[in-house]
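Practice problem 4.
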């Protein structure tokens, strides 16, 4: 299986990295000549026949990405573009864990110089994102979040019903865009989150136009600690399956919980516990009144190699 695709990529250097257990195959394509097909992505990301990963990230100059040439004109500092693919080969607009792993990779490869405290602009299909290097990781400003079905969400804070198998009744949910689509489902108790069977994509109705990632969320005990709200989340990612973490999903989960609680308190600092670790989400209002979503957490490289070394 996948021999042909891997043979086609023979000699290609790669790195393997992760951010809270959400793992990626990372490639550099400084000339913008290495088009990777969906089948090749699936081959590289396969956990038995390939390297293994939830997704593949190609580093390519923004000026060389078809359809995104103007992004570099508007944001001349966004030299590098994160070309993100899910493990099934499908394209996703954004990946919050991926953009931290991506910047860590650029730094490790010597493609950028980024002292602690400094920031870098990264091109992506969801626009330009600013990533700041922290002492122990990276903070990615993913910009404003939004409601997918705004008109429906307003009245009772719910715009979707998740019709997962074996549930006596559907769970209410909120569909949120972080550049990519998410549907956040509030579960009534932590035990349900632990016992959840996420071997298949939960059925979301209505499904957002471009499909959705689905996050299940419960408040942690205690919910608020030192002014930070704590929640627990599991995720089924579009184009992947269950993963150990999803950065944009954590932002969507915090945004939904904050939206549901908006009549009582507006907490801006959130800690989201996922099976692969902990990420931070901050909602920060800019001078222009825009509410940015800032995701922080670690990023790690675990290996480097060459495809098809045999
Ligand atoms: N794991 C990512 C999200 C990756 C893309 C997602 N599967 C989609 O199709 O939108 C994250 O950390 O945000």
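Answer key:
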């Amino acid at each position: 299986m996948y021999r042909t695709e891997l043979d086609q990529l023979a000699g290609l250097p790669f790195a393997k990295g992760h951010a809270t257990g959400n793992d990626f195959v990372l490639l550099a394509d400084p000339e913008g000549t290495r088009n990777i097909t969906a089948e090749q992505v699936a081959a590289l990301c396969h956990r038995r026949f390939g390297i293994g990963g939830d997704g593949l990230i190609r580093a390519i100059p923004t000026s060389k990405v078809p359809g995104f040439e103007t992004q570099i004109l508007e944001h001349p500092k966004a030299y590098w573009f994160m070309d993100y693919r899910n493990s099934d080969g499908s394209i996703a607009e954004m990946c919050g864990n991926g953009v931290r792993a991506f910047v860590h990779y650029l730094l490790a490869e010597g493609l950028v110089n980024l002292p602690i405290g400094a920031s870098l602009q990264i091109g992506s299909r969801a626009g330009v994102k600013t990533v700041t290097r922290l002492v122990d990781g990276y903070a990615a400003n993913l910009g404003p979040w939004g409601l997918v079905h705004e008109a429906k969400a307003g009245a009772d804070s719910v715009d979707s019903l998740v019709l997962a198998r074996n549930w006596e009744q559907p769970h209410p949910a909120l569909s949120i865009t972080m550049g990519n689509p998410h549907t956040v489902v509030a579960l009534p108790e932590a035990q349900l989150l632990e016992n959840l069977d996420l071997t298949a994509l939960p059925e979301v109705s209505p499904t957002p136009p471009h499909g959705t990632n689905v996050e299940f969320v419960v408040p942690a005990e205690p919910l608020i600690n030192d002014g930070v709200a704590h929640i627990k989340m599991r995720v089924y990612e579009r184009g992947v399956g269950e993963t150990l973490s999803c950065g944009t999903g954590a932002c969507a989960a915090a945004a939904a919980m904050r939206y549901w609680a908006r009549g009582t308190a507006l907490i801006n600092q959130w800690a989201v516990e996922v099976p692969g670790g902990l990420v931070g989400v901050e909602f920060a209002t800019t001078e222009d009144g825009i509410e940015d979503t800032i995701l922080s957490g670690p990023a790690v490289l675990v290996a480097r190699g060459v495809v098809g070394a045999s």
